């Protein structure tokens, strides 16, 4: 575990140096390039507030890169100094949030994948008068921990939509691969899908940070149980891993369907080629973008959206017919 002081110093340095990014369309790309070189320019005349985003995952992950890009582009539009940090270790994530509080940021965006661990530090944010919006994970914790609202998809709802799609596609036996044990949202996806599907269902826990090991586990399971005709993964990186596992298990092409949550260049390519049946998109760009916008609206006009319910960004079921249109957006990092 990292010691609190280095985490604080690292975030403090980022807070001093961070800039902003972009807006939408062509202007978004131009502003992003300008921000990267130290320029900028916003679309509003409000004060230069600082918002910090602290997530439980991020570096080198296409999903979190998309969340971050949405947040950066909204920040540029809203004249926000945007600071991003992440750590998969929950204790370190708590330290990063504490560091942001100590720096007296004007707003906080957080993920609550393992929400109970964040309760105490978010109480400190509330006591300090720092508005909080939770994004992506931990909807069930948001209101209890003082967040203004939660931006993301209801994971149980997304799971049920997935199960209904699997049933409609005539699948008979599904292996649901959970890649982060203890992540409430992943459990909710699997459980919701199982309930709506109604067919044979198994869960396999793998280590999502060790893809070769995950591939071996999936392959071994498919070799041991020939009745499984579908593998459901809960992230885009695991989708590619599962496809490799299906091949290594000696399954004939087309005999075992791979379906997944989330998009990536590889997933869109799989949809187009037919190696992936469908993807469940929660629109991560919107989670970052709307999270920043909602904090700005609260600071500027005391607005709160949702009325006590989350601001839903998904689920959206995408298939091969959607792939040609999606490809350009995924390539630019906004889907």
From TrEMBL:
UniProt cross-references to InterPro entries, sorted A to Z: Bact_Solute-Bind_Prot2, Peripla_BP_I, SBP_2_dom
Top-rank taxon, per record: Bacteria
Residues in coiled coil: none
Pfam families, alphabetized: Peripla_BP_4
Keyword terms, alphabetized: Signal
PROSITE patterns (UniProt xref): PROKAR_LIPOPROTEIN (PS51257)
Keyword Secreted: no
Signal sequence coordinates: 1-24
Span of domain Periplasmic binding protein: 52-297
Localization in the cell: Cell envelope
Family: Belongs to the bacterial solute-binding protein 2 family.
Protein name: Sugar ABC transporter substrate-binding protein
The species this protein was found in: Streptacidiphilus alkalitolerans
């Amino acid at each position: 575990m990292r010691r609190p002081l280095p985490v604080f110093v690292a975030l403090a340095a980022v807070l001093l140096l961070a800039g902003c990014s972009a807006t939408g369309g062509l202007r978004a790309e131009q502003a992003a390039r300008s921000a990267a070189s130290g320029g900028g320019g916003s679309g509003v005349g409000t004060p230069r507030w600082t918002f910090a985003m602290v997530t439980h995952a991020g570096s080198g992950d296409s999903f979190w890169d998309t969340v971050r890009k949405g947040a950066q582009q909204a920040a540029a539009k809203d004249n926000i100094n945007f600071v991003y940090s992440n750590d998969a270790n929950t204790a370190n994530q708590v330290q990063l949030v504490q560091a942001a509080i100590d720096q007296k940021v004007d707003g906080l965006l957080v993920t609550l994948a393992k929400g109970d661990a964040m309760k105490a530090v978010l109480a400190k944010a509330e006591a300090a008068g720092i508005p909080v919006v939770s994004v992506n994970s931990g909807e069930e914790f948001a209101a209890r921990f003082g967040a203004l609202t939660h931006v993301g998809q209801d994971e149980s709802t997304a799971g049920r939509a997935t199960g209904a799609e699997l049933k409609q596609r005539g699948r008979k036996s599904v292996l649901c691969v959970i890649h982060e044990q203890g992540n409430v949202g992943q459990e909710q996806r699997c459980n919701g899908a199982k309930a709506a599907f109604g067919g044979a269902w198994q869960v396999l826990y793998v280590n999502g940070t060790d893809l070769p090991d995950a591939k071996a586990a999936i392959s071994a399971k498919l070799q041991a149980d020939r009745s499984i005709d579908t593998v459901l993964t809960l992230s885009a990186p695991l989708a590619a891993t599962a496809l490799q596992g299906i091949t290594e298990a000696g399954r004939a092409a087309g005999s075992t369907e791979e379906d997944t949550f989330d998009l990536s260049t590889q997933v869109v390519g799989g949809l187009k080629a037919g190696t992936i049946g469908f993807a469940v998109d929660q629109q991560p760009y919107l989670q970052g973008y709307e999270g920043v916008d909602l904090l700005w609206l609260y600071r500027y006009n005391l607005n709160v959206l949702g009325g006590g319910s989350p601001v839903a960004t998904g689920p959206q079921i995408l298939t091969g017919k959607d792939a040609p249109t999606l490809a350009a957006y995924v390539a630019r990092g906004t889907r």
